[in-house]
Sequence to fold (108 residues):
Amino acid sequence: VYETRYDGDGANEAWGWIVFFAPSAAPHVYPALCDRFFFRRLVDTGSGVDGLGHGRKEMTKVAAIGPTTAPSLRGELGLEVDIVTPKPTPAELVSTIVGFNSANHSVH
Fold:
């Protein structure tokens, strides 16, 4: 049985990546994603943790495509953004995620 737990210190491995492609779309899809995933926020709301400290949702990492999307995710949604691709291309996304995962010893 697989269970993801959030202990509040960010030490747990995240489930995988949620990639935001456009600042205009993020506010529309984010509420639906919150039903399933726990997003690390710039200000901790505790929304992914129950009274016992057990995670109710799977943690995820956040990627922003291009430098205009990340400020929107941080400013409008208060999300912690793990990576920002230098260019808005699939190759840059893959390269940036692989680099992040290698630097953080993650396989997801």
Notes: DSSP finds three helices and four strands in the chain. The helical segments are 26-34, 69-77, 90-103. The two ends are 18 Å apart (CA to CA).
